[in-house]
Design the sequence.
């Protein structure tokens, strides 16, 4: 049988694990990937003991079994729920929207623990065949990045690790109708405030920055714990949680530089709201990320002799002791729960 196929004829699904390390087949969610690679990440050690010959290696042994997944996705308002849960390590609190009875707001708060959520990955292609799927359990998010650039959809880049891939009976799921976010759905606001309540009030009327591009990177800095007596990774720990981000804008005045170069701490709000789509009655699908404290790090100007001068600003995210909080995200869609 000829199983040659184009890359687009491959499918990827994720399923939330109730118990870490335990594969699940229920509640599988289709992931609308733009590109992805799911490859083994094995390691070998060589015995280079010399025994009087010119051949260097006299033995080799496998010492690590694992795999990795890198994936680029267009930002959709339903499938992103799964990814945010694994970034924040906890399931969201879901409540009915105050203005729309069949619209739900899912609030994510950062969990202060090292027992992050894991999931099972399923992948199908023509080589595996119509009767089988590749499956890998206990996958965790290592990094999650949001990118917004002009004339494009908002995209996310995802890096996940680990478990080895095995072949199982065929799994599938139905396509879920979703709404996408584009560059014209994105706004950024920054205010100085003494606490979260004051910040939210100020952000409601604050003007949005005029920027060309935005990048936000969430990193869990995972650590694979390898123990003696087994090739299997014993566990995966998330270490310090970091958020780094930057944006680029045309350099036409010093307003942006002056805002961030001041000594006061800033609240930042990143809003993705698709106003071209109405869900249920009057609502729009949206994702609202609030950073309780950001710190200015670096400011640079471009130097292309034939191009408009732009400015790029880099920030880091900090824990706000007044709010006892660091970051929250609110996703609005028509899903009741997950």
Sequence:
């Amino acid at each position: 049988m000829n199983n040659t196929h184009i890359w687009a004829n491959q499918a990827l699904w994720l399923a939330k694990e109730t118990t870490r390390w335990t594969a699940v087949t229920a509640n599988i969610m289709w992931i609308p990937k733009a590109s992805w690679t799911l490859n083994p990440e094995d390691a070998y050690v060589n015995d280079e003991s010399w025994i009087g010959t010119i051949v260097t290696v006299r033995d080799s042994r496998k010492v690590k079994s694992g795999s990795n997944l890198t994936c680029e996705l267009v930002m959709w308002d339903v499938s992103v729920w799964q990814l945010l849960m694994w970034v924040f390590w906890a399931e969201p609190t879901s409540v009915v929207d105050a203005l729309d009875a069949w619209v739900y707001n899912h609030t994510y708060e950062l969990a202060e623990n090292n027992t992050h959520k894991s999931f099972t990955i399923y992948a199908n292609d023509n080589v595996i065949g119509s009767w089988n799927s590749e499956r890998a359990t206990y996958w965790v998010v290592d990094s999650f990045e949001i990118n917004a650039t002009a004339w494009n959809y908002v995209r996310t880049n995802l890096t996940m690790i680990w478990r080895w891939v095995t072949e199982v009976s065929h799994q599938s799921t139905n396509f879920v109708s979703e709404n996408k976010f584009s560059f014209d759905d994105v706004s950024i606001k920054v205010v100085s405030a003494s606490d979260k309540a004051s910040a939210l009030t100020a952000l409601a009327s604050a003007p949005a920055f005029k920027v060309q591009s935005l990048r936000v990177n969430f990193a869990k800095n995972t650590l694979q714990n390898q123990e003696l007596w087994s090739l299997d990774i014993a566990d995966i720990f998330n270490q310090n949680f970091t958020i780094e981000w930057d944006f680029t804008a045309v350099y036409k005045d010093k307003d942006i530089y002056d805002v961030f170069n001041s000594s006061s701490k800033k609240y930042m709000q990143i809003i993705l709201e698709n106003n071209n789509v109405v869900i249920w009655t009057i609502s729009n699908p949206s994702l609202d990320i609030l950073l309780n404290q950001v710190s200015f790090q670096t400011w640079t100007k471009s130097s292309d002799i034939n191009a408009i001068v732009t400015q790029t600003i880099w920030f880091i995210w900090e824990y706000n002791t007044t709010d006892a909080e660091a970051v929250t995200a609110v996703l609005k869609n028509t899903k009741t729960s997950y």
User: Anything to note?
Assistant: The chain has a mean pLDDT of 84.
